[in-house]
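From the shared-data thread, chain only:
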Amino acid sequence: MQIQLNTDHHIVGSPQLQERVEQMLTDELKHLADALTRIEVHLNDVNSGKSGEDDKRCQLEARLAGMPPVSVEHRAATLELAINGAAAQLSKVLQRTLDKADTNRKRATSVKHVAQNQPDT
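Structure, as tokens:
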């Protein structure tokens, strides 16, 4: 799974931040690692350096093999809280997406199997 970090000009995209983000996402999404090809991380300071509630924003866009991208966003007082919140959201959305795709795949296989076993009239 490739993780690409993007920051605005108010947040320094240091190697330490990259490593921290990768570790947080890897920990939260390890159960989905086989299905993920890439995650794009967008970190923003919404209030341009002024402190305030929910002024750090983390948007995550995940790409699953053979599926359209999934995007979530979380805002919090700190980058760490914003990243953790977005990662938790992403985990839930991805699991739901994969479960739905699996259900649809099973349903399609079942319908195909039933149709093959129908007598010709």
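The beta strands are 2-7, 36-45, 56-64, 70-76.
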